[in-house]
Amino acid sequence: MGIIELLALAVGLSMDAFAVSVCKGLSCKKASFSGMAKCGVWFGGFQGLMPLIGFFLGTLFADAIVAVDHWIAFVLLAFIGGNMLREAFACDDDDSDKNADFSVKTMFTMAVATSIDALAVGISLAMAGGVNIWAAVGLIAVVTCILSALGVKIGSVFGDRFEKKAQIAGGVILIILGLKILLEHLGVL
After folding, report:
1. Cα–Cα distance for residue pair 73/51, rounded to 1 Å
2. What does DSSP assign to residue 82?
3. Phi and psi at residue 113, to the nearest 5°
4. N or C: which end of the chain has fewer CB within 10 A?
5. What is the rounded CA–CA span in Å between residue 37 and residue 57?
6. How far apart are CA 159 and CA 36, in angstroms?
């Protein structure tokens, strides 16, 4: 997997965290550096950690499933992407007061919730093979950190018009990457 694919993966994975960060920004009257940094560090850290865990779990089972690894990667990425699309089109009646909370408990819970898909992506990366996991998790963490911090600012400035678009873009990117992995292993690409 090349740098372009890894960057696309990083952007796709960061869209959930970006959308949550936009919501955080919406709940703040003015985005503070502290709030932006908290979202960036929490979301970026967990988005980097989860694929690393998934990658090592995937390598433990790689020998047993090497014949179907491309299908597993495709199904996982398509499922995650489809779930992001479903959430983007679902009606949301979130209470904005709870989104303004930057406490450790709240941020930990949201960081884990938005990075569960990254765990599955890590397993997919192990199945895909030929991936420098350290470069991948570093890029995922940095991209998510930056986009999450920007999400707080964007949310406070522009309102909620970007949240659904970010989730849609993330879902589409993950589905396309899953399809690319499948088609490469089938010899179509």
Report:
1. 13
2. H
3. -60, -40
4. C
5. 30
6. 16
91 burial (CB, 10 Å; 0-12 / 13-18 / 19+) is exposed
Q: Which residue blocks in 28-102 are alpha helix, DSSP H? A: 33-60, 62-65, 69-89, 96-99
Report the SS3 class of residue 170.
helix
Q: Do 4 and 116 form a contact (C-beta atoms < 8 A)?
A: no
Question: What does the block give as tokens for 32?
Answer: 């503070």
State the Cα–Cα distance between residues 106 and 35, nearest whole angstrom: 13
- The answer to whether 158 touches 18, Cβ cutoff 8 Å, is no
Task: Name the 3-class secondary structure at 163.
Answer: helix
Whether residue 65 has pLDDT greater than 70: no
Question: Pick the residue with more confidence: 106 or 137?
Answer: 137
Tokens 């597993």: give the residue: 72
pTM score over 0.90: no
